[in-house]
Fold:
Amino acid sequence: MTKKIFITGSEGFIGSHLLEKLVKKNYKVKALCLYNSFNTWGWLDTLDKEILQDVEIVTGDIRDKDLIVKNTKKMDYVINLAALIAIPYSYEAVESFIQTNIIGLNNVLSASLKNNCRVIHTSTSEVYGNADSFPIKEENKVFAKSPYAATKIAGDQLCFSYNRSFNLPITVIRPFNTFGPRQSLRAIIPTIITQALLNNGVIKLGNIYPKRNFNYIKDIVHGFDKALNLKKNYGDVINIGGNFEISIKDLVNLVSKIIDKEIIVKTDKYRYRPKKGEVNRLISSKTKSYKVLKWKPKYDNKKMFFQALTETVNWYSSNLKFYESKSKIYNI
Structure:
């Protein structure tokens, strides 16, 4: 029987890639796009028409409870990717993050409970803050270092409570830093690439010493797909992240090598996080994701990471038109 899946946040970076994969696997997909006055569908507007012809697209907002209840009827799964995610913006607009990441999520959970849907909710590695042991396991304590992280922790706990209190079948997927085509300029890799391409190698960055486990989008959506086949472990959280890690400084050097141009880094104080808000290192344990999901990341060593980064740079080089108009907004 074909799985019927309702996916929120489908117009975004991870959502658009996941939607493509689900359609190619012949799942029946209904996609929620955040309504806007231009009636655009984000990255879905750029997808092959053969992909979109098999998708029912709904415009709206997860903060609208009635809309979510209506559109989750007769769905087997709800994959929730809708969230406000820009960490710097969370310092300025805390209530907006609460409204979407907590109250909006509660609408998704209550609608799923009413309509008998299984839920896959998207968390974030930012919930771990500065971890006290590495690689980071799911049982590590959570510690919010930004309002964004605080709302995601609250959202995770809300998910667990729905499972424990009402038996809602739910899995929380916790992706570590993700990169690839279509990512917004709020993230470090597209920021480095687009600045280097648009400004003849001169880029502005904040702290270049934190280390991250960057995961290619193809590996991340593979993890979500694996979660759809779970027969148990509901009410659980699973990290999705590899073991290869790299500092921002070394990442800049790799991009420089790929574009064959020297990159000059200029320090920009406005790009630093608050001193107490910086997360110095994020690297995931793969033990549980392999045991529970049988998830094996392909791009999890220096050679494969370089291949994925090259593919990403080439995509941005061919699609700068999507980012040139935003360059002033993001101070590029």
